[in-house]
Amino acid sequence: MDAPEWACLLDVLDLIKDKHDGTLAYRKSCRMMICGSCGMRMDGRAVLACKERMKPIVDAGHVPVISAMGNMPVLKDLVVDMSPFWGKIRSVKPWLDPGYDEVAEKERIVSQQQMNVIHKEALCIMCGCCVSECNSMEADPDFMGPAALAKGFRFVGDARDQADVERLNTLNEEHGIWDCTRCYFCNERCPKGVDPRDAIAKLGAESVKQGVDHDMGAKHAKWFIRSTETTGWLRETELVPKTQGIIEAIKQTGFALKLARKGKVPPPFPPHVAADVKEARALRELVGEQGRDGALGIVQGEHALGRIEFTEEAGARENAPEIQPGVEPPPAEG
Amino acid sequence: MEAKYDVLVVGAGCAGMRAAIEAHDAGADVALISKIHPVRSHSGAAEGGINAALGNASEDDPEKHAFDTVKGSDYLGDQDAIQILCDEAPDDVYQLENWGAVFSRTEDGRIAQRPFGAAGEPRTAYAADITGHVLVHVLYEQVMKRDLKVYEEFFVWKLAVDDDRCQGVIAWNLLDGGLATIGAKTVILATGGAGRLYTGTTNAYACTGDGMAIALREGVALKDMEMMQFHPTTLAPTGVLITEGTRGEGAFLVNSEGDRFLKNYAPNAMELASRDVISRAEQTEIDEGRGVDGNVLLDMRHLGAEKILERLHGTRELSMVFAGVDPIYEPIPVRPGAHYHMGGVDTDVWGRTSLEGLYAAGECACVSVHGANRLGGNALMETITFGKRAASHAADWALTHTTVEVREALETDAERELRVLLDRTEGERPWSIRNELAETMHVNFGVFRREDQMRKQGEIVDSLRERFESVVVEDKGDVFNSDLTQALELGFLLELAECMVIAGLERKESRGAHARPYDYPERDDENYMRHTLVTWQDGRPKLNWKPVTTTKWQPMERTY
Ligand SMILES: Cc1cc2nc3c(=O)[nH]c(=O)nc-3n(C[C@H](O)[C@H](O)[C@H](O)COP(=O)(O)OP(=O)(O)OC[C@H]3O[C@@H](n4cnc5c(N)ncnc54)[C@H](O)[C@@H]3O)c2cc1C
Ligand code: SF4
Ligand code: SF4
Ligand code: FES
What we know:
Chain A is mainly alpha-helical. Chain A has helices spanning 9-19, 55-59, 83-91, 112-116, 129-133, 135-139, 146-156, 164-171, 185-189, 196-209, 216-230, 236-244, 246-251, 253-261, 277-289, 294-312; strands at residues 39-42, 45-48, 66-67, 74-76, 79-80. In chain A, a hairpin with a 2-residue loop joins strand 1 and strand 2.
């Protein structure tokens, strides 16, 4: 089959549909990576068909396998049923709750810095690529999933929204943020740089900050932090009761004893303090010093990581535009 | 019949969703119906922004906005409609912000505004380079909040006209197959543009002018159909839009001889001249043999890798993905591409058409606020303001009027017509007709219009329509039969092409997007400061005229 050099996967599918098989079914519209119609899998990874150039693949002599996205029922060929996807989006009450009904006379005053907090999440085109790849979703089809959770943060992080705590409570429920396995597939496969896993981390941080910590996941995270300041060790014997509760912990004693026999668990008494506990404490202080916690802390953490990475690459990323608080993203025209 | 609503909105882009929200808030029972999911609508592709005289970046007022728009329209815009747009725009934008639109901000936290072509003040409100995306999503959020009924992936094929009133639509259910009649006291068409008439276009695959053709078939007139705006920098070969920002940053346009040819057309403004001027200059270079494979080159290498990475990141990504060219090392091939249809369903300032119960708003309508040339940023504003207005009128009308009565026969007739198409097993598949139509429109009805070429195009379209009579749909199934809907879309496009050609031939002047340098190079206000109006009679287009409404602005020469 002949295709022009510039063809992307979507062009190739069009050629197949035109010239070989008119029954081939797939969704498309904008062909410029903005409408989110054309999510599908190429060699098992979720992509936007209009974003994948075929020339390098052909040059490499590779014949890719195209299939429908995962974690969603297939209706025909490459068309999946997106209704569960939209149902989850709806479950996060995805609309601004300003706390009042009447429309203000003018715009509300919000700084660019405040807007930048949700810049990445606002980029989401609802293509479903992240959901297609989500490991948690595979195990638990009721897991809210990366796209809906990112949408959740879009509102939790919006300075104009007045329903944060209510939203965090919903997002902390079963199938919510703490059920994510942190596999990072969503970050890796999102074609728009939304980084849904980061949004989930921000939701976690914000939950703890706002005192919404009834979930095991939140307790687990809190205990981790506490350990850094006390012993510098992760003390499973305390971690389990602190996160899962006493009864659960007793049920797991057998397992714990087995671990202890293999030397995997330090005995609970006397508290065993790590030799390098100072380092753990210093690290904790360093993070604390950054002065902002909750969701904003995570954004900052990302920037810090970005900077480390960047010096390591000896300036390779220097010119890549990055959204920074207070600096406007470059505008464009259309 | 499926269901009965007060207001049924066909199309769920910015115009359609804004309309549905308004109708709901006015107390009407409303539903949206769209051939693609609402957030997939092409409104989402708009990058630049939306015009309203908020005065956040300078002293501005609706009066100035109106004047710029009238002048930009080359005096073919209706001044009463323009005044309404400009007056209502600020409040409509504040409302979008109140609903949660993520606009970029000024230092003091207001909605940011920046300069845009042919606007006297910086009045284009924007959200980085994703304004349309942000608006589509905020409107969909409000649709979800109101829990409005959305018929997703339903392809509207016909209007249900009974008793000389539009009383609903007949639609093909894409997911499950089969026709459904959905009854409504009023129907608002918001189906967007028809850029797919051209090979090189910034428009999505879904932009096939369905609403215009559907209305045309029921005797409703289409206005100013010859007015198709070409954007000067669309990426060859696909037509993806390359923002004007590249030229703003200092990129050059050069021909095959490496010449910055704009010095011969717009020696002062050069790359920053207006869209129509640059499009025509490019086309002249290409026509006179100084193009590169039918394109000119947009060169930004001299800007350096640093600036390109920092300021033109999006453009670089588009160039690499869609043309396989990295602008840091190579110039990118661009050409004028069909971008925006100023023409559309003839409506008044409340979106009303000549058919009772039928309204139109957004790009598929022609109110007309853009006249012969649209200013960047005015299209999104029109979708919002006139989507809202059409819905408020429709809701009012519906709440004070009768019930819906559609004869069964309408659906059975439609069913029969569709069967004929689906049962045909031998003949031509639609794609070759589709490609020929788009290629010939580009050559014969593009940036420049010549009498002989337009006539030839008329004949070509006739013959394509004849071939279309025996077109074959290969997919006979019910589930997601896009083979069928694409064939129906082609039928729409062919009729619209006929309308454009007849209007183009009869407008014997050069105005805005309609450029006839070879026989009528000047604007002729005495004879042609009026709208073309095409209706459909016995399978052929018929041309009429309609006066332009002027209020306080008399025509002047359009120089910048
Ligand atoms: C690349 C690009 C950039 C642009 N940038 C700007 C800008 O910066 N500023 C500006 O003001 N304007 C801009 N424009 C123009 C502007 O975006 C459009 O004119 C406007 O968004 C059209 O909106 P709409 O609601 O009328 O139609 P659309 O958003 O196209 O929506 C049409 C809807 O109708 C539905 N539909 C169509 N046919 C059928 C059918 N048969 N049955 C059921 N449903 C149907 C579709 O599913 C869709 O939901 C740009 C346009 C393009 C292409
Ligand atoms: S990181 Fe979490 S949300 Fe993302 S794909 Fe993995 S399990 Fe799913
Ligand atoms: S987060 Fe990314 S991958 Fe997931 S739906 Fe949004 S754009 Fe698609
Ligand atoms: S077709 Fe719109 S994202 Fe690919």
